[in-house]
Amino acid sequence: MTTCLFVLALSLSLLGDGKAGITMDIISVCGNVAFFSVGIGPVCWVLTSEIFPLKYRAQASAPGAVGNRLCSGLVAMSFLSVSPAITPGGTFFIFSVISALSIVFVYIYVPETKGKSLEQIELLFEKGVDWQRGEIELGDV
After folding, report:
1. Pick from 94, 116, 96: nearest CA to 46
2. 24-31 contacts, C-beta under 8 A, 24 or more apart
3. Are 124 and 103 contained in the same domain?
4. In the chain, how many domains are there?
5. Signal peptide: which range, if any (predicted)?
6. Domain, as residue range, for 131
């Protein structure tokens, strides 16, 4: 996703409105959407459905969904204001940097939950345990 945004920024900045530029723009946008859909896109939904205790999950997931939609709306609404000020290419360079920062954030702060029960995941977030560093074994739950 980060690479697609960066390529889109380069394409908009360097290739312009020519046939090659438009083709690269379309490929980059399609790639960005595809990688978002299988990458960072579902993180909000998966994370909010796993990190909260079962008895609070429905109430706690709602603010996560609202935050997701507000941030998405903020990006969409700000594009038309920011784009003329720093060019469309510059805007996508900024989006590329934000995308790279999101990768770092998810890598550092979002633990892997594959193959773990909801009870184990609850313990993980409750105690701040790091599964990858071996602070707790799966059988300890």
Report:
1. 116
2. 28/4, 29/4, 31/1, 31/3, 31/4, 31/7
3. no
4. 2
5. 1-20
6. 113-141
140 DSSP assignment: G
Same domain, yes or no, for 118 and 105? no
Contact 35, 4 (CB under 8 A): yes
CA 98 to CA 121: how far, in whole Å? 28
Give dist(CA 82, CA 41) in Å, integer: 23
Same domain for 23 and 59, yes or no, is: yes
Rounded distance, CA 22 to CA 18, Å? 6
136 and 105 in one domain? Answer: no
Q: How far apart are CA 83 and CA 96, in angstroms?
A: 14
Q: What is the pLDDT of residues 45-81, one digit of tens each?
A: 877 777 777 777 888 888 888 888 898 898 888 888 8
Structure tokens at 12: 């908009």
Residues 84 and 32 in one domain: yes
Query: 13 and 28 share a domain?
Result: yes
pLDDT of 30 reads 93
Task: Please give the helix or strand (H or E) that residue 123 lies within, else none.
Answer: helix 118-127
- What's this model's pTM, rounded to 2 decimal places? 0.73
